[in-house]
């Protein structure tokens, strides 16, 4: 019975063997490197998408509810939203729902904005003075719409930070006149930068009084009167959101004489975040699965190369067995070689993946990031794959008959 070979001796022999076949070892590790880098990069992108969505939702305002015309079936069918959400609904909510703080009705329309020889397509929002508080916007220069502006349907406008740069090249725009739909509007304020929400850049919007929007831009609906795009509502606090949602739903159902399906929807930030988290979470899992396939293919590459190595090293195996090496020692050496290849490949892949994630974060607006525990998990997974796919070659090597192996010398 042969002596038991120490683990450190097996490890050193494995390193020596791998070092003697540098090209083969490098090519074997390549699959693991690519697979590990893919997993880390794709997980980083997926997590970054979740973080970006959360950041954008936080820009909507604190403790905010949104009432929009149409229901989920309307949206799934892709038909035009009904125009039955009105200014009277917004006033009723403000007067009759006790759990809310402020109500900000809104009308949106895509229009061409002109200043001298420049023209840009922009979203024009007809809003009330409460919009600033409800949606947590800030003014950088000048002032926002006042009650006097709204009651008198004044032709005044507040422009977004980027639109101000596009139209006026950072020159003081206060007091300047621009045109919207052949109507002249005086700029009275510029918004602080706010960022984008779901692809819509809020810094390129323009804000005018709601009454001016109705009288000069959109007009009234012949059936419903002043139809709104949606209503933003600020609850008294976070604990009041569910109660406010329930009360608003009941009030609008009564006002719209609804018996069956609602013709409106009440949404909170939490609802939107749940939907977005489900979508981005599914996307992240799909991306991780794609990277996992690459890692699996890398494991198959290790098994194939190790099988070739067993065939080429028949004489070495036979000689070692002849001088007392046990089957367990032979098997352990080949498993160690597979493990070393997988772990080194996993570590190199982790560095490449981490570099890719940081590169994406620097070159794009996506806040891609990856946690240390994810990197440790993927490297551990690489090692596990090396062990799993190294079992068959190691077993085959350990079962070689030394007499048969020595005949080939």
TrEMBL record:
The chain crosses the membrane at residues 26-46, 283-310, 330-354, 374-392. It is found in: Cell membrane. Residues 25-250 form the MacB-like periplasmic core domain. It holds the Pfam family FtsX. InterPro entries: ABC3_permease_C, MacB_PCD, Macrolide_Exporter_MacB. This is ABC-type antimicrobial peptide transport system permease component. Residues 290-402 form the ABC3 transporter permease C-terminal domain. The keyword Cell membrane applies. One of its GO terms (molecular function) is transmembrane transporter activity. Keywords: Cell membrane, Membrane, Transmembrane, Transmembrane helix. The gene is salY.
């Amino acid at each position: 019975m042969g002596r038991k070979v120490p683990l450190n001796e097996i490890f050193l022999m494995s390193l020596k063997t791998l070092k003697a076949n540098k090209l083969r070892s490098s090519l074997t590790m390549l699959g693991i490197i690519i697979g590990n880098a893919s997993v880390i990069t794709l997980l980083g992108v997926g997590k970054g998408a979740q973080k970006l969505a959360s950041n954008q939702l936080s820009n909507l305002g604190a403790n905010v509810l949104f009432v929009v015309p149409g229901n989920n079936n309307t949206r799934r069918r892709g038909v035009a939203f009904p125009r039955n959400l009105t200014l009277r609904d917004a006033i009723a909510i403000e007067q009759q729902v006790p759990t809310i703080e402020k109500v900000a009705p809104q009308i949106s329309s895509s229009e061409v904005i002109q200043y001298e020889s420049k023209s840009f397509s922009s979203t024009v929002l007809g809003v009330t003075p409460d919009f600033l508080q409800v949606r947590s916007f800030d003014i950088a220069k000048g002032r926002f719409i006042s009650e006097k502006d709204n009651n008198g349907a004044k032709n005044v406008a507040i422009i977004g930070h980027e639109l101000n740069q596009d139209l006026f090249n950072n020159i003081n725009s206060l007091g300047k006149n621009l045109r919207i739909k052949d109507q002249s509007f005086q700029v009275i304020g510029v918004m602080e930068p706010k960022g984008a929400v779901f692809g819509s850049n809020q810094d390129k919007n323009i804000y005018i009084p709601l009454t001016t929007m109705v009288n000069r831009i959109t007009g009234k609906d012949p059936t419903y009167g002043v139809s709104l795009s949606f209503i933003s509502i600020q609850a008294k606090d976070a604990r009041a959101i569910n109660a406010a949602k329930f009360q608003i739903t009941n009030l609008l159902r009564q006002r719209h004489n609804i018996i069956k399906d609602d013709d409106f929807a009440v949404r909170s930030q939490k609802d939107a975040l749940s939907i977005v988290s489900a979508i981005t979470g599914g996307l992240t899992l799909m991306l991780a699965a794609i990277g996992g396939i690459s890692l699996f293919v890398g494991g198959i590459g290790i098994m194939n190369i190790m099988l070739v190595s067993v065939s080429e090293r028949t004489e070495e195996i036979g000689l070692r067995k002849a001088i007392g090496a046990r089957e367990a020692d032979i098997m352990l050496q080949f498993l160690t070689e597979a493990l070393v290849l997988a772990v080194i490949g996993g570590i190199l892949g982790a560095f490449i993946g981490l570099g890719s994630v940081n590169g994406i974060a620097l070159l794009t607006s996506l806040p891609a990031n990856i946690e240390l525990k994810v990197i440790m998990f993927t490297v551990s997974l690489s090692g596990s794959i090396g062990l799993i796919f190294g079992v068959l070659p190691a077993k085959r090597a350990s079962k070689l008959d030394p007499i048969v192996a020595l005949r080939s010398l």
